[in-house]
Amino acid sequence: MAVVKVTDLAYVRVRSPDLNATGQFLSDFGLIEVKSTKTELRFRGLGPEPEILIAEAGDRGLAAIGFAVAAREELDRFAATVQAEVSEHDGLGGGWRVAAHDPDGNRIELVCGVAQADPLQVPGPLMNEGRDRLRRRGEVRRPQEGPSHVLRLGHIVLTTPRPEELARWYREMFGFLVSDVIYQGNKDNVLLSFNRLDRGEEYVDHHVFQTLAGPPGGIHHISFEVLDIDDLYVGNTHLSKRGYRHMWGIGRHKQGSQIFDYWIEPSGIMYEHWTDTDLLNADWTPGVEPVDATQGPWGPPPPPDFITQVG
Question: What is the pLDDT, as a whole number, of residue 132?
């Protein structure tokens, strides 16, 4: 039984040696700046979360991953397990926080009692497609040039020399469930572990947390949901015109089924736009596949430096 049940991925904190360049990229990526100081930038999406990405001045890398739990009692239980203290959370929504470190040294922050913000208006209209052709009536669709519309934070992928061991630690601590495992050679040689929230019968995203074979303490990528495939393409055009480095996409993943597009922020951290995902509940039986069976149904193959990318 897990120590606590995490209810969501709340936020990610990163460090950047050039906050101005990072902030401009994140705005062009579609995140909305809500607070700015000389040493810190805070961003939200269109959803009710008060902040989902925080950039801090410093050497490039991961500063912390924030996960939400439902009750203060869970914070107390986690604090007792890791021998840490519960303190007031300094995030925009307030609440309470416990900080600890995973076996690779990544800082983990569990929060609860965070006040939600008012969600921002989600643009329309809907797409008429397939057999459901009356979702938009008497109005035309004219997407405007500009950034994609980021709805929310979706998942984070960490690099580690021990993908299965690190993923198991997160499952035992936070109650994650395995969705898919990718291996090379024999099945014990795990390269990539996809893990989702456990909300019982409720359906959740295919994955919220992944581990990937690589150096310890690295971010492979941070992923955000956008409005739809049209919005994803609009963002691709905008980022291309701004001259940012494109890593991979547009395509559709096999594990998770997301339509994806990957970009490199100026300091070197990789960010993903995605739309559409498989939704699973606690009844799902994990998939186990070799690495050469992971190519999605359409889109270009990953470039050689995609797997080795570390932010």
Answer: 65
Q: Where are the domains of the chain?
A: 6-115+148-308
Nearest alpha-carbon partner for 42 in 26, 53, 28: 53
CA-to-CA distance for 260 and 279, rounded, in angstroms? Answer: 16
Q: In terms of DSSP H, where are the helices of the chain?
A: 19-29, 72-82, 163-174, 229-241, 304-308
121 residue type, one letter = Q
Q: List, as one string, the DSSP characters of 212-246.
A: EESSTTEEEEEEEEES-HHHHHHHHHHHHHTTPEE
214's CB contacts (< 8 A; 6+ apart) are 159, 160, 161, 220, 307, 308, 310
Return d(Cα 151, Cα 140) in angstroms, integer.
23
Whole-number Å distance between alpha carbons of 111 and 180? 27
**Cα distances (Å, whole numbers) of residue 119 to 45, 83, 165, 180, 191:** 8, 36, 37, 32, 37
> Which residues of the chain fall below pLDDT 50?
none
Q: Which class is domain 6-115+148-308? A: alpha beta
Q: What is the pTM assigned to this prediction?
A: 0.95
Using the structure block, give the residue that is written with the tokens 């994140």: 26
* Whole-number Å distance between alpha carbons of 100 and 108: 5
